[in-house]
Design a protein that fits this description.
The complex is a heterodimer. Chain A is mainly alpha-helical. Chain A has helices at 4-8, 18-21, 48-54, 57-81, 89-113, 133-154, 161-185, 209-216; strands at residues 22-24, 46-47, 122-124, 225-226. In chain A, 53% of the residues lie in helices and 4% in strands. In chain A, strands 1-3 form a two-stranded antiparallel ribbon. In chain A, strands 2-4 form a two-stranded antiparallel sheet. In chain A, helix 4 (57-81) packs antiparallel against helix 5, helix 4 packs antiparallel against helix 6 (133-154) and helix 5 (89-113) runs antiparallel to helix 7 (161-185). Chain B is globular. Chain B is built from 9 helices and no strands. In chain B, helix 2 (14-29) packs across helix 6, helix 5 (60-86) packs antiparallel against helix 6 (91-115) and helix 7 (140-161) runs antiparallel to helix 8. The chains are: A mainly alpha, B mainly alpha. Chains A and B meet through helix 5, helix 6 and helix 7 of A and helix 2, helix 6, helix 7 and helix 8 of B.
Chain lengths: 229, 221
């Protein structure tokens, strides 16, 4: 298990401002950072710091989704606070809708989880150049595709049919985001559902939590580790 | 980050499903239709048999749900196949619709493969919906409107059926993996039609009855 110090010890970023480097979610409740201890989560192997607060079973899955939605919401909030120079009206409208959707997902999951919700994640977007359209949209694609893969992989971990339905209502919106931002980067091409995300069986990506958290790790300062799966 | 980790029965049949999909692809684009008979090599026949055993072991609820999905995929597959053959789609949009068509053909192949003998037949479709869209395969705007309807319907249909698959992890996961592809399609077709790619933050599911009612005008009774 990594300690908090190890995780937070990032090298100084080259370009972006302090503001973009680390930001606590603005819409989240204020609260203590997630405690840095805990054991393996029995059912799907998210371990250590986060596991203690994720909870088990369906609550754990919802908290996992809640963490990813927090990451996305924080990202788009920052994108619109510091829009890249040549952001078109169309792009602004799209990114604003996406931000509002991610915030709505955060709020929905927070409400559903009630007192079992994890606290606000601390995020790190030092790898993103918010002045660059390419950097912003590529990061958006990364987050959206990752979100789709995460929900697709988490579906089978959910036991409550109502939670599965709720996750289903969110994941297809994430897929719509993914397709749209991909199309902004490569208009009119197959990119919206390109071969790197849809295989030759016509299937989108599905990832277990451990892989998703590993991919998200560079963007999350809060200690979130996965030991198995 | 790569990733199609279907260590499932479905994933295990990959090579043969691929072979079957190639037939579909050829049918979609090819000049010379390749008959399934010509491709029915011994390994393919064996694999199909294996899938039939598999389908026979599935509970009726799952077979019914997969057949419902297969029916919708058949409609979509035939829709894009016909449209691409009619050759009216503007050059700048052909790439997208060919790509969507490939996915729908792949979904038909995948679901047919899983269901084996239990698979429903391709339904007979009327894409003019009894004359409501007479120019569906000559007027691009009409075509995009119908395409958008099918894609959004597909998203809502898979979403509505997820609960019926909750007891089978592999099949639920595959259904979710198709579901999000349909959502990517839906978003792209909406964009081509000049619309927002979404309604709001949450996509709504539809029941089987609602989906069938919406699809009914396109099905020949």
């Amino acid at each position: 298990m990594k300690t908090r110090d190890q995780v937070t010890d990032h090298p100084m970023p080259a370009a972006p401002s302090d503001n973009s480097r680390r930001a606590v979610l603005k819409f989240g409740v204020t609260g203590a950072a997630i405690a840095g201890f805990g054991g393996l989560l029995p059912n799907f192997g998210i371990s250590a710091a986060m596991a203690a607060d994720l909870g088990e079973g369906d609550i754990g899955v919802l908290n996992y989704a809640y963490a990813l939605e927090q990451l996305e919401a924080a990202f788009y909030t920052m994108v619109l606070e510091k829009p890249f120079a040549e952001m078109t009206a169309d792009e602004t409208a799209i990114l604003t809708d996406i931000r509002d959707h991610e915030v709505a997902h955060v709020e929905f999951l927070k409400t559903a989880l009630a007192e079992k919700a994890i606290g606000p994640l601390e995020v790190d977007f030092s790898a993103v150049d918010f002045t660059s359209r390419d950097s912003v949209l590529q990061t958006a694609v990364t987050f959206e595709d990752l979100g789709v893969a995460a929900y697709n992989g988490a579906g089978k971990l959910i036991t409550n049919v109502d939670y599965l339905a709720a996750a289903g209502s969110i994941v297809s919106v994430e897929a719509r985001h993914a397709a749209t931002v991909r199309d902004l980067l490569q208009p009119g091409s197959v990119a919206f559902a390109g071969p790197e995300v849809v295989d030759d069986k016509g299937l989108d990506v599905s990832l277990p939590p451990a892989d998703v958290l590993a991919a998200a790790k560079p963007f999350i300062t809060t200690d979130v580790t996965a030991m198995s799966l | 980050m790569n990733i199609h980790q279907n260590d499932s029965i479905l994933g295990g049949l990959d090579p043969d499903l691929r072979a079957k999909m190639i037939t579909n692809r050829r049918g979609l684009f090819g000049r010379a239709a390749v008959s399934l008979g010509a491709l029915a090599s011994a390994p393919l026949v064996l694999a199909l048999s294996a899938r039939q055993v598999f389908a026979a072991d599935l509970p009726a609820q799952i077979v019914d749900t997969l057949n419902f999905a297969l029916t919708l995929e058949h409609i979509e597959d035939a829709f894009y196949r016909t449209a691409l053959e009619a050759n009216f789609i503007p050059e700048e949009h052909k790439t997208v619709f060919r790509h969507i068509g490939l996915h729908e053909a792949a979904h038909v192949a995948l679901l047919s493969g899983v269901l084996g003998d239990a698979a429903v037949k391709r339904p007979e479709a009327d894409f003019t919906a009894g004359g409501k869209y007479p120019d569906v395969f000559s007027n691009f705007d009409t075509f995009v409107a119908v395409s958008s309807t099918f894609e959004d319907l597909g998203v809502a249909a898979y979403k509505g059926q997820a609960g019926n698959l909750i007891d089978n992890d592999d099949i639920l996961t595959v259904a979710l993996q198709i579901h999000s592809v349909e959502a990517r399609h839906a978003a792209m077709v909406r964009r081509i039609g000049g619309k927002k790619a979404w309604d709001d933050a949450f996509d709504k599911p539809m029941t089987k009855e609602e989906v069938l009612a919406a699809a009914k005008p396109f099905l020949v009774a």
